Amino acid sequence: MRAILFSLIAFVALQARADQYFVGSRQFAEEIQKYQEACEQGCQKPYREALFYTNGKITSAFLSNGELKALQKIAVEQAGIWADTILEGDYYAEGNTELEEVTGIFYKSRLVAYKIQYAERAWETSSCDFDGEDVTALEGCPEGIIRETSFVSPDLKTFIRNHDDLANFYN
């Protein structure tokens, strides 16, 4: 199991250039894997989730304005990889990444990660006459959003995309 996890981390590090690894990143990735297994169908003890930020408002004292600004910056950095992934296909995004939600992930009473959900306004371009440059042509394209989630360590130094919820277009 560990060999698979380390191989996955190495693969992710090569593929997801937007991810950032820092001291303790291996332990962080292992903690995230344990969390995902425990929360596959609703969180099981000792893990739990708490919503910290939604609809443009901080909803918990566990999240400061400074941390929120840092998480917004990480969301923008993470969305930067979309140019080499989802935007290589039939999608165009406006480039204004918004942090939609921040969820705290706890092991017992200890915060082990933030899960951030971020999105950009986008258009699906395969069924319209968008040439990649004239944005007025987007009016004839289906509009929606591109959304993705990432996990961020409590010290805000390590962050990895959630490979169970990579960037996708929703209309």
Considering the chains and any ligands shown, give keywords for the structure:
171 residues; alpha+beta; eight-stranded antiparallel beta sheet; 3 helices; 8 strands; 25% helix; 32% strand
List the helices and strands and how they pair.
Elements: H1 2-15, H2 25-38, E1 47-54, E2 57-58, H3 65-79, E3 91-93, E4 98-107, E5 110-124, E6 143-152, E7 159-161, E8 168-170
Antiparallel strand pairs: 1-2, 1-4, 3-5, 4-5, 5-6, 6-7, 6-8
What can you see in these coordinates?
With 171 residues, this protein is α+β, with helices and mostly antiparallel strands. It has one domain. Helix content is 25%, strand content 32%. It has 3 helices and 8 strands, in the order ααββαββββββ. Strands 1, 2, 3, 4, 5, 6, 7 and 8 form an 8-stranded antiparallel beta sheet that branches. Strand 1 (47-54) and strand 2 (57-58) form a beta hairpin. The radius of gyration is 17 Å and the shape is elongated. 26% of the residues are buried. Mean pLDDT is 87; it is low at 1-17.
Q: What's the short story on this structure?
A:
The protein is α+β, with helices and mostly antiparallel strands and 171 residues long.
